[in-house]
Amino acid sequence: MGKRVLIVDDDKLVADTLSLVFKANGFDTETRYSAADGLVCALDYDPELTVLDITMPERTGLELAEDLNRQVPGCKILMLTAYFSNVAKANEQASRLRKPINVMSKPCRPEELLREASHLLLTA
Questions:
Q1: How many domains does the chain have?
Q2: To the nearest 10°, the Cα dihedral for 41, 44, 45, 51?
Q3: Over the stretch 13-54, which tens digit does the pLDDT of each residue have?
Q4: Which of 56, 57, 60, 100 has the fewest CB atoms within 10 Å, counting from its CB?
Q5: Residue 12 belongs to what domain range?
């Protein structure tokens, strides 16, 4: 079985596409469409990596990342944003969290996403 990846994005097309990319490359994936559902899933699924959208209704990806850092401490986090202007702000906010979070803009090429995910999974 491959590494466990949880994808959380309120845009179902994006989330499902990301899931397909990871599954096609040997990862075991779960997909959720809200931060609340993502947290519930993470507590049960215990992902090694969570790929989060930053901008979601109700709770942001950064808020979910804080919860994941506390409740699923072994999980690495990769955040995605469709708003390039959010990248610097997100990096700044993410740097204040207890452990580093990588931020990428979307859309991104599948090979870039997989390279970044693999890098995160290899780091301690």
A1: 1
A2: 40
A3: 999 999 999 999 999 999 999 999 999 999 999 999 999 998
A4: 57
A5: 4-122
